[in-house]
Amino acid sequence: MARFTNRELSTRTLEDFGEFFANVHGCACTLYFLGKHLPQPVAGTARERAAILGAPDRSRKRFPHQELRRARELAVVTELVKQKKADGILVYADGEPVGWCQYGRSGEVWKINCFTTRMDYRRQGVATRALAAAVAAIEKRGGGRIESSPMVFPHYDPMLPKLRRTFGWRSAEVAEYIADNWPSRELPGIGKANACQTSNKTMAHMGTMSMFEKLGFEVVGLDEKRSSDDPRYPWTFVVMRLDLDPRAPRDRAGPSGLRR
Which intervals hold domain N-acetyltransferase (predicted)? Predict the structure, then answer.
């Protein structure tokens, strides 16, 4: 088993941040720092961008437009970090960055927004460790109210992408299959809550309800913006909340001052 450690995002860990996102996917996690995506570096279709920048070479894992986008996003994050306007947690396995959690303040409330784990370290508790470190970092800064909107629970169904490729995303066949096979559970105060579709390669970046429950977060409502009751792609996200009181005695088992 790997030895996991974690560090906060800072000028000292920026190089690790860049290394991590170069190894997981094509972005550098600017959405929640800025509240919006950056526009594409080069406009147009994939073919038009390839004509300008060069075509992707999968054999060498070279994707020119993706590399340009990542470099620009990393430059933006670097400037935000220098201005102390970017918060996050990096998780390391034997010194190598393998996990990420982004958090930040929104008015009077702290928001935990995003998790990413390198594929070869998934299902080893990396995201849960990152979440605990984020809560501890918020506590160190004075605590307060923390909110997040995780999925209720994930579900991987290898048949669903096959049906979507065959019949189309909006097809009656897809809707019928989901109606007959999609798992759900009852949540107090919420009612029926559907699983969120994941794949064997990716997981939704919002985290899972069970991760937050382990640290004392409680469900306070349905996240209506992210949830969907469309029969072709149903999924349920909930709003979870934790109030941290920095004056409360420290609990060695986890972050101090957990209040229900």
Answer: 50-245
